C-alpha cells in the first residue's frame, strides 16, 4: 500500500486569508496522493481551516501574518496533522472536546471548536518556545 | 467561491454557490446573501457545487436563516454534498435551515402552507 510507505510531508506558510485556500488545496492533494479516504481528508481540512481561521480572527501576534507550519502524516486509515504557529498561546483541546459533547444550544465555544472536537479523534497540545503545536489525528467517519 | 443569483424576481430567490465556503468564500457571499435574506420571503441556496464548508461560512448561513425566519421566511439548502451535510449536521445548525434533495422538495420547503 502506497499510504503505508510514504513519509510525512510539511509546508510552511504565512497565515493570511489569501493563503488559506493554498493550504487547503495542498492538504486535499496530498491526502488524495496518499489514497486516503476522501471523508478523512475532508475532516482534516475542516480542522485546519477552523484552527487557522481562529488564529486569523483572535490569535494574531504578527500584523503581517503569523508563521504556520503544517505536517501531514499518513496513518491509514487515519491522517495525522501537526499544526505549529507563532500566534498567541491557545490550547483548544479541552474546549473543543466539551463543545463536541454538549448539545448545540448549550455548547461552550463556537461551531469551529465543535467541529474540531467532533472530527479529531486525538488532540495533543504543547507550547514550544513561542509556538503553539497541536497534533491531531483524524479518523474515518464512523457512520 | 462564485455566487450567482439565478432568480430573484418574486418573493423568493434562488442562488447558486460554487467553490469553497471558507474564509475567502464567506467574504464573497456575505453581502449578497444578507441583502437577499433581508428582502425576500425565502432563499433557495443551491449548494451542490460547494466543495468545502468551514464554520465561518456556516455563520453567514445562520445569519441569513435568522433574518428570514424573523419575517416568517425560510432558508433552504439544495443538495449539499454528503461531506458538507455532515459539517452542517455536526455543527448543530440543521434545525435552523432545511435541506432539499430536489426542486420539488425545495419548493415545498419554501412554501410549507401551499
Task: Write a structural description.
The complex is a heterodimer of chains A (143) and B (114). Chain A has 143 residues and is of the alpha+beta class. Chain A has a single domain (2-138), classed as Heat Shock Protein 90. Helices cover 42% and strands 29% of the residues of chain A. Chain A has helices at residues 2-5, 17-33, 38-58, 93-101, 111-119, and strands at 9-15, 66-75, 78-85, 120-128, 131-138. In chain A, strands 1-2-3-5-4 form a five-stranded antiparallel sheet. In chain A, helix 3 (38-58) packs antiparallel against helix 5 (111-119) and helix 4 crosses helix 5 (111-119). The longest helix of chain A is centred in the middle third of the chain and has 21 residues, at 38-58. Chain A is globular and about 35 Å long. The model of chain A has no long low-confidence stretch (mean pLDDT 91). Chain B is an alpha/beta fold and 114 residues long. Chain B has a single domain, classed as STAS domain (Transcription Regulator spoIIAA). Helices cover 45% and strands 32% of the residues of chain B. In chain B, strand 2, helix 1 (23-39) and strand 3 form a beta-alpha-beta unit. In chain B, helix 1 (23-39) runs parallel beside helix 2. The longest helix of chain B is centred in the N-terminal third of the chain and has 17 residues, at 23-39. Chain B is globular, with a radius of gyration of 12 Å. The termini of chain B are far apart. The mean pLDDT of chain B is 94.
Instruction: Give the domain tally of chain A.
Output: 1
The CATH homologous superfamily of chain A is called: Histidine kinase-like ATPase, C-terminal domain
Sheet/helix structural class of chain B = alpha/beta
Main beta-sheet annotation of chain A:
5 strands, antiparallel
Low-confidence stretches of chain A: none
The ordered H/E elements of chain A are HEHHEEHHEE
- Main β-sheet, spatial strand arrangement of chain A: 1-2-3-5-4
Q: If you average the pLDDT of chain A, what whole number results?
A: 91
Radius of gyration of chain B: 12 Å
Report the span from N to C terminus of chain B.
34 Å
- The total count of strands of chain B amounts to 5
- Can you identify the CATH superfamily of chain B? STAS domain
What does the overall shape of chain A look like?
A: globular
If you consult CATH, what is the topology of chain B? Transcription Regulator spoIIAA
Quickly count the domains of chain B. 1
What is the architecture of chain B at the second tier of CATH? 2-Layer Sandwich
Structural class of chain A comes to: alpha+beta
Give the helix tally of chain A: 5
Helix fraction of chain A by DSSP (H/I, runs of at least 4): 40-55%
Shape of chain B: globular
Question: Could you give the distance between the termini of chain A?
Answer: 25 Å
Amino acid at each position: 500500500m502506497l499510504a503505508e510507505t510514504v513519509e510525512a510531508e510539511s509546508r510552511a506558510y504565512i497565515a493570511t486569508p489569501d493563503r488559506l485556500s493554498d493550504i487547503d488545496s495542498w492538504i486535499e492533494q496530498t491526502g488524495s496522493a496518499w489514497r486516503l479516504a476522501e471523508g478523512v481528508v475532508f475532516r482534516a481540512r475542516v480542522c485546519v481551516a477552523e484552527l487557522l481561521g481562529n488564529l486569523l480572527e483572535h490569535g494574531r501576534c504578527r500584523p503581517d501574518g503569523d508563521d504556520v507550519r503544517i505536517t501531514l502524516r499518513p496513518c491509514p486509515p487515519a491522517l495525522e496533522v501537526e499544526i505549529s504557529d507563532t500566534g498567541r498561546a491557545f490550547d483548544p483541546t479541552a474546549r473543543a472536546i466539551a463543545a463536541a459533547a454538549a448539545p448545540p444550544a448549550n455548547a461552550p465555544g463556537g461551531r469551529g471548536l465543535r467541529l474540531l472536537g467532533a472530527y479529531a479523534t486525538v488532540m495533543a497540545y504543547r507550547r514550544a518556545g513561542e509556538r503553539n503545536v497541536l497534533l491531531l489525528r483524524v479518523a474515518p467517519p464512523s457512520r | 467561491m462564485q455566487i450567482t443569483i439565478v432568480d430573484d424576481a418574486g418573493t423568493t430567490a434562488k442562488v447558486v454557490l460554487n467553490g469553497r465556503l471558507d474564509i475567502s468564500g464567506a467574504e464573497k457571499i456575505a453581502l449578497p446573501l444578507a441583502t437577499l435574506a433581508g428582502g425576500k420571503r425565502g432563499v433557495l441556496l443551491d449548494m451542490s457545487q460547494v466543495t468545502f464548508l468551514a464554520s465561518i461560512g456556516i455563520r453567514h448561513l445562520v445569519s441569513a436563516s435568522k433574518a428570514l425566519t424573523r419575517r416568517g421566511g425560510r432558508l433552504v439548502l439544495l443538495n449539499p454534498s454528503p461531506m458538507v451535510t455532515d459539517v452542517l449536521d455536526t455543527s448543530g445548525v440543521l434545525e435552523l435551515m432545511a435541506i432539499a434533495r430536489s426542486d420539488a422538495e425545495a419548493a415545498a420547503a419554501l412554501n410549507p402552507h401551499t
